Amino acid sequence: MKNTCIKAQEFFNKKLFAMLDKKLHLSTLRAPKFLPFLKQIIFLKKMTIEMTLSIIKPDATDRNLTGKINAKFEEAGLKIVAQKRMQLSDAMAGEFYSVHKARPFYNDLVKFMTSGPVVVQVLKGENAVLKNREIMGATNPANADAGTIRKEFALSIEANSVHGSDSLENAQNEIAYFFAGYEIIA
Ligand code: ADP
Ligand code: MG
Prior knowledge:
By secondary structure, the protein is α+β, with helices and mostly antiparallel strands. About 45% of the residues lie in helices and about 15% in strands. The protein has helices at about 1-20, 35-45, 60, 65-75, 90-95, 105-115, 130-135, 150-155, 170-180, and strands spanning about 50-55, 80-85, 120-125, 160-165. The structure holds adenosine-5'-diphosphate (ADP) and magnesium ion (MG). Adenosine-5'-diphosphate binds next to loops.
């Protein structure tokens, strides 16, 4: 399925670039001859099985929320295919969040992520990356939708209970950062 998706996506991209080359307007894609093709792409996209990295943060492990958070993932159809409880070192947390190095909250974030145990996990399912972001809710719990993990459990914008990868590429890198292939039982 994954290969079919990639092939379909490549084909779609080629068509798109060819159209752009010819300076055709994107609305041409709505032309009836493209409709079956677009439906197929949407179908394949819906069926894409992905893996994403999740971290249950120290504020949540401290309040015994691991089970309740895992229930949210499972109820939404995501499978926990790898999981371990860890104490992150300064170096591990610092490197993991290095993309935020220049942000004013970086030092506090590393301090927070090393302040107690975390549970790192791999979640698998249809559109797992985006689905997990939806289950998590917005970074700031004040802006999170009702029913999301952050709305129900987060204490603050920093102590917001969970991390989740924000793209498929980051998910692959973040999973490899914490897990060896044999630890993921899909
Ligand atoms: P997300 O976790 O939703 O992907 P970011 O990647 O922007 O959010 O930030 C990473 C983490 O840094 C957040 O989950 C949160 O713990 C912390 N953080 C983000 N913004 C702030 C902020 N303004 N003040 C304090 N901590 C923050
Ligand atoms: Mg992020």
